[in-house]
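# nightly structure sweep
# worker-07 picked up a monomer target from the shared queue
# config: single-sequence mode, recycle default, output format = structure tokens
# input follows
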Amino acid sequence: MDGIINVYKEKGWTSFDVVAKLRRVLGEKKIGHTGTLDPDATGVLPVCVGKATKVCELLTEKEKSYRTVMLLGKTTDTQDISGKVLQEKEIGNDITPEKIRLVMENFVGEYMQTPPMFSALKVNGKKLYELAREGKTIERKPRKVIFYEITVEKIELPCVVFQVTCSKGTYIRTLCEDIGNQLGCGGCMQELERTSSGIFSLEESKTIDQIQEFVDNNKIADILIPVDSIFPHLMGVKLPSKFDKLLHNGNCISYDCMKQARETEAVQKAALLETRIRIYDSQDAFIGIYENQKERKMFQPLKIFYGK
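# output follows
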């Protein structure tokens, strides 16, 4: 079984809980998730099965969208409501909906964000949240993240409901605290739902119970997304049968081979200008992603999905 399943992570589960449950449901050992969601968070969690686990790190690079409830006037050690309250402040009359919207708009674009102590990031081989539980706080270097869009949905103080689309490695908890700090009252995250991750949407996600039903009805193929479908932005090229052995052995593909592809001459020429392409054998089997080595006049395998 090879492919990606768009899982709806339910509240109270860790991302690793989801993987463990899917191993039992699918009867597969080789499974990996594509980006941690906090236990209290819900929503889209693409899970890779079989050979698809090779793309886990590629999927984590995709932009993600969330629906968030921010609670103003409260600061916690975890930056969400599950943590220990560090400070509470009244929300003054100067904190108007207009001011809140203006402050939030200022976060759109590139932003240097400091990762929270309660996170899975590792420092000297130890996860930050492990140090935090020991009562330790260490210096963290700010990292560049990008907020592509922040849209306020509803303001009913002390709560603000908003949607955000951002780059990988972004902590929405930290965003809520930073917004609260700029408003002067503090803030933390009350709820979080991931609504999309790359091409995977909330509407098409499936709970573990729903996935179990597909398995019981022998219809798991209906929701198992082929690996090559997550690379629609890359040109696909099919080579003739005389190159099948070369492809199946994971060899590089020369420009001369590419000029014999089972495509139009225009597509052949266009492929030589691409940075990365998808390559298929004569039977339409997806071989993998190849990277253009222009100085060597060949395409080198970047990720191979054919075979074991």
